[in-house]
Design brief:
There is one protein chain. By secondary structure, this protein is an alpha+beta fold. It contains twelve helices and eleven strands. The strands form three sheets. It has a five-stranded antiparallel β-sheet with strand order 3-4-5-6-7, with no helix packed on it. The protein has a four-stranded mixed β-sheet with strand order 8-9-11-10. Helix 3 links the parallel strand 8 and strand 9 (about 160-165). The longest helix is centred in the C-terminal third of the chain and has 26 residues, at about 360-385. The structure holds zinc ion (3 copies). One zinc ion binds near residues 85, 94, 107 and 110.
């Protein structure tokens, strides 16, 4: 099967010639022909059960297997046998599948949860539902890109884990951030009103759960793909030297705001705070771009149909114009510019906020190309690892767990600012002495407003939620049936004996997601 990169490159080059190419994309159908969507669990037209098969990257119709609680893809009755994720009938309403013979009860995406919200608090079920919906979009994209997604078994092993936590009984708000593979999210971010308020306070043009996840996961993949790996020197050339004092850099950022000319070099004001944040912000935009362009192409939306001339980016802006994928990348980024321009206009025609309230200066496009190369290399490495044993003399692209352990620590308390100009903690209050500057309360120095316009935004899969004839995710289902929070992957969600107390680990020890690891402060200041 061709890789995602082969597929999207062919489709974007070909767009306008063919109406639609479903060879690999974001459009799903029930076997009865009904259009269905990423989060659907059943088809309303024919009542078929639906499940997301992460290896295929598709929502498929299911038929019952011969054993109880097993399923096969309806179109492949003799094919692989699956079971449904144990979080199906919980507020998470997870529609993912896993192999029936897996020792796990939760799908890959749900296995990544280390702490989930306390479901004895009535409103937490709905918050968790939204969080999991965004997280599944994230994980599905990472898998589509071919990036390694490995659950953390123990801290510092190079794996990935999520803590979804609220304010503690002592009133301490958790800081959204990343440290050594652990992504912490303050569940208040799933409250739309709270998040909108925070976005206003932070003067951010954009703040979403998916944006938070895409930003934080960028820090994780810095550990995995950059730290101590062959790309490190290239990274420093493109983004600056990450060894400058992180805490100090953020402090300066909060006190002084972004440099006046930030928009010429960065995707957001926050990106100008430190090379790690520049990477995470730009990484998030790379994921935004790839997912949205992929979705637009899946629906036959051609950048060539956009009736407006944009000056396309050329090799001149690339960090590596000789890279074999340089032309493919340029086509994707130019499609992104054309599509987002139209989508912004569509948003304005509806009186909505801009779909993509950002501008892409040439240096950011260069950084995006660097990320494209890194992601492709990471993807190719994973696929080599999966097919054959890794040849020893091959330079490893993955920086590995050891590197991951001593680096990270950034972002505690990150305003999550996926793409915001953000700063500040999520609550702006009582963060305690250990909070890092990223968790500092918003300062009045509103950095220059993010550029409002220009290019961008392709239609996407939201096409039909309202009219969607297909069974919506069954939210609410499980507050009653799931009095216990599955704290981690090793525990079956339904029978999970572990109490789900916010901030408490499965073994009863207090989880302490609010303790921010100290920022790695290494010497060697370097100019941004
Ligand atoms: Zn159907
Ligand atoms: Zn799941
Ligand atoms: Zn960050």
């Amino acid at each position: 099967m061709s890789s995602f990169f082969d597929s999207i490159s062919a489709r974007v080059a070909d767009s306008g010639k063919r109406k639609r190419d479903n060879s690999r994309g974001k459009i799903f159908h029930c076997d009865c022909g009904q259009p269905v969507f990423f989060h659907n669990t059943a088809c309303l037209a024919c009542q078929a059960q639906l499940g997301y098969e992460p290896d295929l990257g598709e929502v498929r119709s299911l038929a019952e297997g011969t054993e109880p609680d097993t399923w096969v893809l309806a179109s492949e009755p003799k094919g692989r046998i699956f079971k449904r994720c144990g979080n199906l009938n919980t507020p998470a309403a997870c529609n993912w599948l896993l192999p029936a013979d897996s020792a796990e009860t939760l799908c890959l995406a749900c296995q990544l949860n280390r702490t989930i919200p306390d479901l004895s608090v009535p409103e937490n079920g709905e918050l968790w539902r939204k969080i999991e919906a965004a997280k599944r979009l994230l994980i599905a994209q990472l898998l589509t890109l071919g990036l390694p997604v490995k659950p953390m078994v123990e801290e510092g092993d190079g794996g990935l884990a999520f803590d979804f936590v609220g304010t503690s009984v002592d009133g301490v708000a958790p800081l959204t951030g990343h440290a050594s593979g652990l992504v912490t999210l303050n569940i208040k971010e799933a409250d739309d009103a709270e998040r909108a308020k925070m976005r206003e306070q932070m003067h951010e043009p954009y703040r979403t759960l998916l944006g938070h996840f895409r930003h934080e996961i960028g820090h994780y993949y810095w550990d995995v793909l950059i730290a101590d790996g062959p790309f490190l020197e290239h990274y420093r050339k493109a983004f600056g030297d990450e060894r400058i004092d992180y805490g100090e850099a953020l402090k300066v950022h909060y006190e002084n705001g972004a440099p006046p000319d930030w928009a010429n070099h960065f995707i957001s004001t926050y990106a100008s705070s430190h090379p790690w944040e520049d990477w995470a912000e730009t990484w998030a935009h790379y994921l935004h771009m790839m997912d949205t362009v992929d979705t637009a192409l899946s629906y036959g939306i051609s950048p060539k149909a956009v009736q407006r001339d944009y000056e396309p980016f050329t090799e001149a802006v690339l960090t590596d114009p000789d890279d074999p994928s340089a032309q493919d990348f340029l086509r994707i980024v130019n499609a992104w510019v054309a599509l987002t321009g139209v989508l912004n206009e569509l948003s304005r025609a509806m009186g909505q906020r801009d779909f993509y309230p950002f501008a892409l200066p040439a240096p950011v496009v260069g950084k995006l190309q660097f990320i494209h190369r890194v992601v492709k290399a990471g993807s190719e490495q994973v696929s080599r690892d999966e097919t054959v044993a890794v040849t020893i003399d091959e330079p490893m692209l993955m920086a590995g767990a050891a590197a991951a352990q001593n680096m990270q620590t950034q972002e505690q308390g990150d305003a999550g600012q996926s793409q915001g100009d953000g700063m500040g903690n999520n609550q702006g209050q009582n963060l305690g002495p250990s909070s890092t500057p990223e968790g500092a309360p918003a300062v009045g120095a509103a950095p220059a407003a993010a550029p409002l316009d220009n290019a961008v935004a392709p239609v996407n899969n939201n096409v039909a939620p309202v009219n969607n004839p297909v069974a919506p995710v069954n939210n609410n289902v499980a507050l009653v049936n799931n009095p216990v929070a599955p704290l981690d992957n090793t525990v079956a969600p339904v029978n999970n004996p572990a109490p789900v107390v916010n901030g408490v680990n499965a073994d009863g020890t207090p989880a302490n997601p609010t303790t921010p690891p100290q920022a790695a402060q290494q010497p060697v200041p370097a100019p941004l």
